[in-house]
Amino acid sequence: MQRIGVFVCWCGSNIAGTVDVEAVSEALKREPGVVFSTNYQYMCSQAGQDIIKDAIKEHRLTGIVVCSCSPRMHEATFRKTAAAAGLNPYMVEIANIREQCSWVHKEMPIGTEKAIILGKAAVAKVNLNTPLTPGESPVTKRALVIGGGIAGIQTALDIADAGFEVDIVEKKPTIGGKMAQLDKTFPTLDCAACILTPKMVDVAQHEKIRIFSYSEVSEVKGFVGNFDVTIKKNARYVKEDLCTGCGLCTEKCPMKKCANEFNLGMDTRRAIYIPFAQAVPKVATIDPDNCNMLKNGKCGVCAKVCTAGAIDYTQKDEYIEEKYGAIVVATGFNPISMDKFDEFAYNQSKDVITSLEFERLTNAAGPTAGKLLRPSDGKHPETIVFVQCVGSRCDACAEKGKEYCSKICCMYTAKHAMLTRDKYPDTDVYVFYIDVRTPGKNFDEFYRRAVEEYGVHYIKGMVGKVSPEGDKLIVQASDLLADKQLKIEADLVVLAAAIEPDKSARSLATMLTASMDTNDFFTEAHPKLRPVESPTAGVFLSGACQGPKDIPETVSQAGAAAAKVIGLLAKDKLVGNPCVAHSNEMMCNGCSSCERVCPYGAITYEAKEFRMPDRTTLVRRIAVVNPAVCQGCGCCTVVCPSGAMDLKGFANEQIMAEVDAICK
Amino acid sequence: MKFSYFPGCTLKNKAKILDVYARKCAEVLGAELEEIENWQCCGGVFTTAKDEVATKLSSVRILKEALRKETDLVTVCSACHNVVKQTNYAIQTDKEFAGKVNRYMAEDEYNGETKIYHYLELLRDVIGFDKVKEKVVNSLNGKKVAAYYGCLLLRPNSVMRMDDPENPSIIEDLIRAIGGEAIVYPARNECCGGYVRLESPELANKKSNNVFNSAMNAGAEVIVTACPLCKYNLEKSGCEIPVVYITELLADALGVKEDADEQ
User: Fold this and answer.
1) pTM surpassing 0.90?
2) B186 close to A (CB below 8 A)
3) Which of B8, B68, B70 is closest to B35 using CA atoms?
């Protein structure tokens, strides 16, 4: 028989406001096995933990139940407390009477009754708990960074500088990401390329970093410290080790009319291309959809002009298997499609552009060599209207856009408006906004300068409609402060499109078993206290894949993620989770059901000899669980037809006892 | 194909031709429209009295009658369609409203089961524009037709679900099916001024002028609409090109306009 102690926490008024904690500790005193029951204001505080420690010693407790907040919050705390008093930490059970009880009920009698029932279930479970000892597993001292934008670059550099090997997987032909497409960066207006490209070169030259460009992660197996990752290296039809990046092929290729994705389709490139001059790796790539040689075997000009002999039309996709101890997700963002925002006529006029397109139009390496010219006729625009929050902060129209604030648009729009007025003082610049949100170091000062020094017309109100008429764009809008309807004849309209996570993030999250929110941003382990870790052990988050972020914030988070990775890789061994599956070999009938459902590949089968009662031997096929790989999800225990599979710490018997206690 | 049909008050008076041509065309296209018996007004503008239940009850009666006859409901006037559809949606999604409505009505409970088609949706989704095209005997021969949607036909999109309210194509597709050239112009989904005409004719004129000028600048020879109030406002504001109903244009193309005129 267990000797169980029950500790009911008030959590200030969080629990005690809706749950009669005194009544709960009294009621649970009468449960089988309970020898001690008490309540206290803050059980997680030092004083509260001391109450638990003293009770364990004084009453010789063999198991404890803490009725408090979610186990995600303080299970680890109370396990440590128990261990400090000499009790096996797996003899601790948490009854969640806060998130699942006091916070969701309003009336004291209902909250109290439910808290008692939850407490009874936990007591019933502890009665069947057995001490568990975690195993240990080694750590592969290498990290994988998925995504080669500024987030991935900074994380990789920081990890590599600490002495660990890092691989970057980037799906585009070059690293650099969105930052490489930007012109200037706020609030200091230094050129994006000038501060980014040295970092890209550092990555390329770092002896601890390898870049897999034009590649994707195709499979992830294993667990923290021991990930097995398959990387798909897409065929670029150019041998990376031979190509010198001279660019001759990209000048001679006869296929001139391919949309240039680096300039967002505003100009063209050849079928063999290097995205931009400072690309890393500086290696050409053949676009198979546009290459004549690959499509119908006619051409071969690039192979003829390549003095290095780097062109290889027979190259195939290659799959590389690597081991890592930690994985950092840095998959970044994209502006949303403007297809559902036809009121702004994006699909009806070439002179309605997104802000990212505006970046390319003002970039010296862009399609107009940095001259601000209208895409339709190449004329200098005299009136420019910027529209903020296109698809952001959309509650009524959530099916079109996003409910969240995209965070970076107020600042980059202020930058665009300011730079336009600086370079072309003859232009009239309007910015329509819902609110101007510019918190951040030197950010609000920057926005004020756009208004006060550069004379940008900031108008509170939204644009209702943009109608192309002749070579003008008629912008219909409201000025809320003046309570007036405005009609502006503009030459160029720039839409600050909301940003969303990269489309590849969802399938990657499935591979990593990492969780996402409803907007497909990766979820952090704790929104305040663990912002760069995913809830999946060994998976870390860097940059805009976790939420909208500007460059300074991305770089800080990238460094933080790197610090967490370094902390993990610095360990020689990791303590595992003892709550893993195990099979009763006498009951296992070798059906393979469990092996098929195991998401981690933790179950294998082996032939084992059994002595029969008549002294003959029988060879039977039985399931064996690798406790280092098992994550304790419990799928196998559900499918096992003979009931041989069970989960330590969550045995079928224990769960049934909880259900019984609730239904009694 | 049998449908319950609700014309609405205006279609029995000022907009008679919208109704007559709609029936005649449906007949040719193989859709049987059976007028709901003893119907009353749809209840008028939905949004101006959203919290008023009594005015919605006549719409509910229409919807219930269609359900009783186990048929889908077809409407043609933009305004009626908007009211009936919004009422049905409110019953489906707002429990409090549905409860009140059902307590007002003594008979069986109604929970928004009836499916509602606007006449244009009937043509597009049930009959099919390709089928309409096959039945054309008197093609528009490239006549430049500007579709005028107004506001009630497409909005609010979460309820109406007919087409993209910012860049619609349903009427343009119909125009093309019957041989016309569809003129796409910026103001085609702007408001005509609506009931503001009663209070401020100048404002209604301004709104309507904006619409037909935009259509005429784009080269339109004729404007089509499904809404009697839109037609009234455009004409009252001095539109220089003809404003006709979609069904009139369709009846002409299907060669039944004269038959219908006799009726």
Assistant:
1) no
2) yes
3) B8
